Amino acid sequence: MPQNAFHTVDVFATAKYAGNQLAVFEGADALGSDQMAALANEMNYSETTFIEGGSPDDGYDVRIFTPDGEIPFAGHPTLGTAAVLREHFGAGDGVTLNLGVGPISVEVRSDGSDSEQYWMTQNAPTFGAELDRETLAEVLSLDAADFDADWPIQVVSTGLPAVMIPLCDRDALARSEVFTPAYRSFFDDVGVENLFLFCPDPRDDANDFAARMYAPGHGVAEDPATGSANGCFAGYLARHRYFGDDEIEIAVEQGYEMGRPSHLHLEAEDRGDEVAVRVGGRVEFVSTGRLV
């Protein structure tokens, strides 16, 4: 695997230059952790990945960094890195990434058109504390009435915890804005940095939900497409029988407020002892470069 080469891709993209940007570095076994952190900060995407080695049989060892440091798992870096491995290293239609949370499998599916979708199976979600609307209203510069009281505000994790926050409509979603002092106090109390807001009021009728994701604690003010949080969301919907069923198959739009429209496809099945979660979307290749 060549050293110093990197690729950029757009994940969960509706077209090139949409979705969530990702930089993928090859031959990263020659880089130290400090160098990886510096490169992630230099790229200044929500995440950057580093392929340290591996094989189709044993999986590929990959590390994920935000501009603020290393994290054990994130969704769009998993799919984007798998796409790079398939496109440039012949990894095949099924590839395993060995991440901080353990091995994550990715498969390629046809969506019935000329394009393909990359799908990952995430770890089974864990369901944590339920939180009150008043606290989140202050954090998000909203009123308590903007939250959908029929569904809980809850911490969910498939490897990277996020708070699931149901809102009534897209107007509330558009008005949401992180109030930094309240966010810092919230993080000190709860210890979760990622805030995932959703409502059943999408712009595109082909989608079921509109969403936004704030992660300032990771150095990401807002994320245009968040595979990990959407995996948590899929598990949340199935566990709480949002549609009256223990299985869901839906589409979510995200990133429109940032000018980077993204579409994510979610599947989940509540099997009682655990919830099976899959997240998929398109990957667009944008550029290839080399460090100097």
TrEMBL record:
InterPro entries: Phenazine_PhzF-like. SUPFAM superfamilies: Diaminopimelate epimerase-like. GO terms for molecular function: isomerase activity. Pfam families: PhzC-PhzF. GO terms for cellular component: cytoplasm. Signal peptide: none annotated. PANTHER family: ANTISENSE-ENHANCING SEQUENCE 1, PHENAZINE BIOSYNTHESIS PROTEIN. This is Phenazine biosynthesis-like protein.
